[in-house]
């Protein structure tokens, strides 16, 4: 048995990615951010679908196509279709934002 909130360092110089389950068509991971964001000119352009859920904390996602901003708090989830360019614009700096990400491969 595992606990999603266990084994998180108190200081995070970089985002922490922990693989929880990996199979042929799915990868589930925990991501921990604390004041981290995607560099300004960088966009994620993934060849797979992704569903993310904020378990704790606060973050802002931005889509490149229309610059739509999604302010996400604990309990919020979003489905990001393959090749939808997006980035993490902001995560709260003084507490950890814990994400559950499910990557779905075609």
The share of residues in helices is under 10%
Instruction: State the fourth-level CATH superfamily.
Output: Jelly Rolls
Residue fraction in strands: over 45%
End-to-end Cα distance:
29 Å
Question: What is the 3D shape?
Answer: globular
Alpha-beta content class: mainly beta
User: Measured on Cα atoms, how large is the radius of gyration?
Assistant: 13 Å
Q: Name the poorly predicted regions.
A: none
Number of helices: 0
Q: Estimate the mean pLDDT confidence.
A: 96
* Main CATH class: Mainly Beta
CATH topology: Jelly Rolls
User: N-to-C SSE series?
Assistant: EEEEEEEE
- The CATH architecture category equals Sandwich
- Strand numbers in spatial order across the main sheet: 1-2-8-3-6
Say how many strands there are: 8
| Number of individual domains | 1
Largest sheet: 5 strands, antiparallel
Describe this structure in words.
The chain is mostly beta strands. The chain has one domain: Sandwich (Jelly Rolls). Helix content is 0%, strand content 49%. The protein contains no helices and 8 strands. It has a 5-stranded antiparallel β-sheet with strand order 1-2-8-3-6, with no helix packed on it. A 3-stranded antiparallel β-sheet has the order 5-4-7, with no helix packed on it. Strand 4 and strand 5 form a beta hairpin. The termini are far apart. 15% of the residues are buried.
């Amino acid at each position: 048995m595992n606990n999603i909130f266990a084994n998180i360092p108190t200081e995070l110089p970089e985002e922490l990615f922990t693989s929880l389950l990996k199979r042929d068509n799915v990868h589930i991971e925990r991501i921990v951010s604390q004041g981290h964001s995607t560099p300004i000119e960088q966009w994620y352009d993934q060849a797979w679908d992704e569903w993310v859920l904020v378990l704790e904390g606060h973050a802002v996602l931005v889509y490149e196509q229309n610059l739509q901003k999604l302010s996400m708090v604990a309990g919020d989830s979003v489905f990001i279709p393959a090749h939808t360019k997006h980035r993490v614009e902001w995560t709260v700096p003084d507490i950890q934002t814990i994400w559950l990400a499910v990557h779905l491969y075609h």
